[in-house]
Amino acid sequence: MNESLKQPVLLVEGLSKAVSRVGDSVGDNTGDENALHILDDIGLSIQRGESLAIVGPSGAGKSTLLGLLAGLDVPSAGKVILDGEDMFSLSEDDRAALRGEKIGFVFQSFQLLPSFTALENVMLPLELQERAEPGRDARRAAEQLLGQVGLTARMHHYPSQLSGGEQQRVAIARAFVTQPALLFADEPTGNLDARTSQQVIDFMFALNHERDTTLVLVTHDHQLAARCERVLTLQDGRVQTLQ
Fold it and tell me: What CATH number has the domain bearing residue 63?
């Protein structure tokens, strides 16, 4: 077997997050009476191409965990190893560069640039990476992905001219355009009705399978969680179940 296939794309060891009562991050000191422990000793291994849902009640630490896995926040203790790189041993600039190369994001609130068309929003990550020849390769890749999510006829529209479901499909295309190793999605169907949610879910998993992208998502949507290969349930900052 190819060695790269056996190595997890994401390995999490002893991950903890604590903050002081006034909101500052603190070290992993369980004896500190002023510390509020949000996550405690999370361990997890995720394979390339796998899909994982993170579920649990409000306040369980789901979004905090997602932020740590993506390197957007710094833990109090523990490691997150992305494609063999220990993210928190890197400088902030190097960690940001690794995120840009390896990670895509989909948010509940879409996070599209309002003054950019759908096509321009999807092109932007590639142009920032300078991995495509400006104006040509990035455009071709963006047009292809917008076609795959059914938005060829809407690619020159601005976000304000698109429905919520269309905006989320643009966001999904933007997340996949850099061919990331990992896609993180935080409540991707949270603002959508049931029918639109199903369409968005179908597009996301179609691209997940086609591009062998690892998908990690936080959701309250039981239908979405059921589509994932594994489900991690958080309770009070700890892994309750992983199935």
Answer: 3.40.50.300
